[in-house]
From TrEMBL:
InterPro entries found in the cross-reference section: PAPS_reduct_dom, Rossmann-like_a/b/a_fold
Protein name, UniProt field: Phosphoadenosine phosphosulphate reductase domain-containing protein
Domain Phosphoadenosine phosphosulphate reductase residues, every copy: 7-145
Source domain of life: Bacteria
One Gene Ontology molecular-function label: catalytic activity
Stored Gene3D superfamilies: HUPs
Length: 290
């Protein structure tokens, strides 16, 4: 007897992921949809998520990590309503209190705020190995298309590249109204430092709130061989050092730096932060969250 797997779309809040939501709703109406809220997204993706729910008529489960402050103890999750989606930084603050600030070579934030809550929830609801996780990764993102048991991709059912997706959304009654460098967690450690600089220039208040968070004395101080505490970004940069580095640059000069580095090309992390593609080395069958 062939085992029937439940299809679950892990909706990141980006355009490609939302296209996957649309296609799976059409092709497999019994698909379930899950969104993991980090509390660190720009408000525009939250609006986009709500529009996807409304226009595509889906039942979306929204999750937030519930952090157990005791080291060595597993975290859990809670289900929240659409109205509770907001940029309050609380999940990110909670994981920093427990683990210290994440950094480019230790991006535990995706695992802790997205992968673990998603996996716990799905294992609780459907049973381990009883579901297929779908991610909105396109055909023009070959570096992110990694074969993994239990995972499927937008590229498996649609050959759209980045421009095709943009054009598709132009024909829809709503769109994700945000500049790419502000996508996903606004000050994500996986973004290039020029994108972080541009984000701080465009969102002064958000940058101020983020500085207040990482300067919180309750954040755990961790001694690391490669990264000192609060050195979170590429090139051994802190959030403050990036701001200082680009303070003499005009906004146009920062944009030109990004364009010169091709950081707006397909596959950049500000397009979509997927639970598996950003954690390629994480063993789904290990850890106390299963």
């Amino acid at each position: 007897m062939v085992k029937i797997m439940k299809n679950i779309v892990s909706f990141s809040g980006g355009r490609s992921s939302a296209l996957l939501v649309y296609l799976m709703k059409k092709q497999h109406p019994d698909t379930d949809f899950v969104f993991m809220d980090t509390g660190a997204e720009h408000p525009k993706p939250y609006e986009f998520v709500k529009n996807v729910v409304k226009h595509f008529d889906i039942n979306l489960t929204c999750l937030r990590v519930v952090v157990n402050p005791e080291l060595g103890s597993g975290n859990s999750y809670r289900i929240i309503s659409l109205d509770e989606l907001k940029q309050d930084l609380q999940p990110f603050r909670d994981i920093c209190y427990k683990y210290g600030t994440p950094y480019i070579h230790g991006a535990f934030c995706t695992r802790t705020m997205k992968l673990e809550p998603f996996t716990r929830y799905c294992n609780d609801k459907y049973g381990k190995s009883n579901y297929q996780t779908w991610l909105g990764i396109r055909a023009d993102e070959p570096r992110r298309l990694k074969a993994k048991d239990g995972y499927s991709y937008l590229a498996d059912i649609c050959d759209f590249d980045k421009q095709d997706v943009i054009n598709w959304w132009k024909r829809q009654p709503f769109d994700l109204e945000i500049l790419e460098h502000l996508g996903n967690c606004v000050f994500c450690i996986k973004k290039s430092i020029s994108k972080i600089a541009l984000a701080t220039r465009d969102e002064h208040k958000m940058a101020e709130n983020f500085i207040n968070l990482i300067d919180d004395p309750n954040i755990r101080v961790v001694e690391r061989e490669q990264q000192a505490n609060k050195i979170m970004y590429r090139g051994n940069h802190s959030f403050i050092s990036i701001i200082a580095m680009y303070q003499r640059y005009s906004r146009e000069e920062i944009v030109n730096t990004i364009l010169g580095n091709r950081a707006f090309d397909s596959g950049s992390c500000s397009e979509s932060c997927e639970i598996f593609s950003c954690q390629l080395d994480f063993d789904l069958n290990a850890g106390d969250f299963l």
